[in-house]
Structures are given as structure tokens and as C-alpha cells.
Amino acid sequence: ACTHRPQCAHQEPWCTVDSATQASGSAPGTGPDPLLPGDWRPLRLWRISAEVLDTLANRGEFAGQRAHLSLLTDDLTHRVVAAAVGSAADWNRDRSIVASIAPGSLVIVDAEQPLSVGLWTAVCDRGAELLWPVGETAAFPVHHRLPDGSGLSRFPGVVGATRIVRVIERGASTERLITSILDHRKAPAERLTAVY
What we know:
With 196 residues, the chain is α+β, with helices and mostly antiparallel strands. Helix content is 23%, strand content 28%. It has a 9-stranded mixed β-sheet, sandwiched between helices. It is globular, with a radius of gyration of 18 Å.
């Protein structure tokens, strides 16, 4: 059953996502990724946007003509773990997704998204780790190089030891990955790149 039905042209897919979310929960057979040492359960965070009809209700609900859907899926089974729909900068949407993340998970942000210190902190506070792609414009100068070629850096403009991140260069690609897993022995750079 639909718990949230936005007034848009494509209502049924929202219902399908919601039903799949309720049905999947913590599916049997999910577990650690064989590519990773350790026991992390890989979850992938997808962000999708779609046009909605230009109605007064949609303007109020989505603050424009686009609805934004966040999906959290199990990276091994591809089952939906959590889903939320809302406007572009909707912290409530992210908060509802974060509430479904179990300790011991590795949350992989699927595509380059604006880096959110709030989302990063919320996921880490749940006892999970993150792997997030960032473009060349994001400033993450390496302060300490690690034996696997990755390096330690900090969130730009944020102080405190909890904001240290590990930066992984992706070969010839200008895209880099940042992760909250600081110990290169627990998750070598080549393994994290392969998982991504």
C-alpha cells in the first residue's frame, strides 16, 4: 500500500518503490561483499529526479516541477532497503534513508553528488562507513600519503578529527573517491575502487 502518493503523472512507480521497500526490509542472504576484507554490508545510495505535473499541490510538495527520489539498495541482492521522495534539498528525505542504515554497512553514493557534511556525519553516527565520488573541483589536499597510494585529508572548512577522510585517486580519471575508512589495511584503495 502507498504511504505517500505525490500528485504527479506517474503515481504507480512510487507505489511500487514503496511496496518494495516495505517488503524487502533486511533480506536474507545479504551480507559482506566478497571484494572487501571485513564484514561490511554494501549499500548503494541512488539519487534520481523526475519531472512532475505543474500543479499547486506539486509546487507545495516539491518546491518546483521536479521530484527527487532517494533509494538505498543492497549492492549484492539489488533489493530496495529504503526509499524516500521529496524536494531537492530535503533533509527529511535523507534522514529517513539514514534511519534504515545498520551499523557495519558501507554506504556507496552511486554518482557524483554535492558533498553533504550533514549526511556524512549522520551515516557515520549510525556506525556505518561511506564511499563517495567527488570531482576534481572538490578540494581535498592530501596531508598524509598511505602505502596503498591513498591519502588522508579533511573536509574543506570543517575542523575536528571526526572530519578526516581518505582520498583515493582513480587512475587516469579526474574523479576521486573519499571514504570514512581511514585504515588502508582494512580496505585497500584497489578494493574500494573495485567495489565502487
